C-alpha cells in the first residue's frame, strides 16, 4: 500500500463522527455544535464542541487538515532536518472535560504528517495516543484504561504498549511541578518504520480503542455524588491541564506557530479553572491520595 | 556611582513593603501572607500574597534574588552572546487581580541583571515597566495610567515615555489572538546606556510611580455595582491573561527555565478563569467596546 492521504482523511472524518455520536449519547443533552473553518495559509478543519452538557462541561473534537510552507520545529521531535519543508498535517484531536469531579478528563489525538521538498522523496510519519487525567483516583478505572491501551497495541508487537506507555509518561509531564499530567496511556510520534499500511492500521487501532477505553469510565462515574470540596479540587487541578497545554504541548505550540485556528486549538482548555497560591492537600485525604498513588508513573497492568 | 547591588536590593525590598502596605490598606481585609523561600541552585525570595480579600481577589507581590550558572536565552532579548554566563537577577514582580470587574488588573516589574564571566567585565542591565488590563474601558482611567507612566519617564528624556510605551504595546501582545493584553503602559529591557546611577534612578522612578498610577483607579472602581454578566466577562477575559503569561511572558518562561519557585512565578495567574469556545461580544455592548476602543494600541495622551 502506497501513501494514501485520502484514506487517512476518510478514516479521520469517520472517527470524529463516531466519537461525537457516542459521547453525545453518553451526555444525553443537545449534542455537538459544528464549525467548519478555513485556514488562510491553506487547509481547514471541522471543529465540534459541546459545552455545558449534563455530563460534559466541555468536549471538543477537532478534525483538521493543514497545508504549510515551512514545517516548524515543534512538528517533529527527532528530525530537525525537516524544518522548513512544505508539509501537510491531518489529524483528529479531542479533549473531554466532564462536569463530575469523579469522572476523569481524557485526551486523544491521531495525526499524519507528510513533508515534501522538490527533487526528494516525501517524508511521512504518524503520531498520536490517548491519556487520562483523573481528579480522584480509582484503580479499576486506571487498569481498564491501560488494558484497553494495551489491546490497541498488542497486534503490532509485544513491546509496543510498554514503549508507548513509557513515552506517554515522559511526554505528559509538568517539569515545573515535577508532576505527571495524569495516569498516562499511549504516546507515539515519528512512526514510519512499519511502512505506511501498518502505521495507518496502528492509527486506526488507537483511534478505535479510545471510546472503549473512556466511555465505560465516564458511564460509571458521571452520576457519582459529589460536593463543593470535590468540585473545588477539580477546578484547581484543571489549572495543571492549562499549564501543560500552554507551556509544553507540542500540538498546541505547533498549532499556534503555524497560524492555526486559535479557537480550535484552545478548545482543549477547561471551561472553568482555579489557581490558588501554594495549596497542598490534607495528608490522608482523597486529594492527597491522588498525588501519592496516581500522579506517579506506575505499571498499571503489573 | 559604580554598580551597587546592595542598593538595588535595599530599594526592591522597600518597594515591596510600600506596595503591600498601600494595597492592604486599599483592600481593608487581612493583608498579605508572606512566604520566604530558597532556591536550591542559589538565591531565594520573599513572596507576599493576598487571596480572597474584599477588594483584591488575588494580589501577588514577589521579591526575588536568583544566582545561576548559565543565563538562559529568555533573560535578554538582544544579547544572545550572554547566554551561558553566570548571572545574578534581582527583581520585584507583581500582579493584582481585583474582584470587581470594573477595576482593572495591573502588573508591574522592576529587575536588575548582572552577567559575569571570568576575565571579562561584568555586563549588567535593568528592565521593567507596568501595564494595565481593564475588563471594561474607562477613558479617564487609561489617561491617568498613561499620564503617570509619562511622569515616571519625563525626567529621563523627552522621548522615553513614547519609546517605552510603544515597546509595551509590542511586548504585551497575544499573536494568536491578534490582540493586545490590555491598554499598555511602560516596558523596557537591556537598559544600561545611561550608566548605572541613572538607570537605577529610572528603576526607582518606575517602581515609585506604580502606586500613583494604580491606586486611584482601584479606589474609584472597587465599589462600582456589577452583576453576573460583568463577572462572567471578567472571568472570560482573564483567560487571555493566562494565555499571555504561559505562552509569551519572558519573566514566566525565565523563571520556569531557571528552576525558579513555581508557586511564586505562577502567583500571577488569576484565581478564577473561564474559557468558552469562540465567544464573541454582542455588537454595541460594553464588552464589544472594550475590544474596539481599548484593546487597540492608542495614544492616550494625544
Summarize the structure.
The first copy, chain A, is an alpha+beta fold. The first copy, chain A, has helices at residues 5-27, 139-153, 160-171, 195-221, 228-247, 250-257, 262-265, 286-294; strands at 33-38, 43-51, 56-68, 86-98, 105-116, 123-133, 173-174, 179-180, 184-191, 272-274.
What does this structure look like?
Two copies of one chain form a homodimer. The first copy, chain A, has 302 residues and is an alpha+beta fold. In chain A, 39% of the residues lie in helices and 26% in strands. Chain A has helices at residues 5-27, 139-153, 160-171, 195-221, 228-247, 250-257, 262-265, 286-294; strands spanning 33-38, 43-51, 56-68, 86-98, 105-116, 123-133, 173-174, 179-180, 184-191, 272-274. In chain A, the strands form two sheets. The first copy, chain A, has a seven-stranded antiparallel β-sheet. A two-stranded antiparallel sheet of chain A has the order 7-8. In chain A, a hairpin with a 4-residue loop joins strand 7 and strand 8 (179-180). In chain A, helix 1 packs parallel to helix 4, helix 2 (139-153) packs across helix 3 (160-171) and helix 2 packs antiparallel against helix 4. The longest helix of chain A is centred in the last third of the chain and has 27 residues, at 195-221. The A-B interface holds A 35, 47, 49, 51, 58, 60, 175-177, 239, 242-243, 246-247, 256, 262-263, 265-267, 269-278 and B 35, 47, 49, 51, 58, 60, 175-177, 239, 242-243, 246-247, 256, 262-263, 265-267, 269-278.
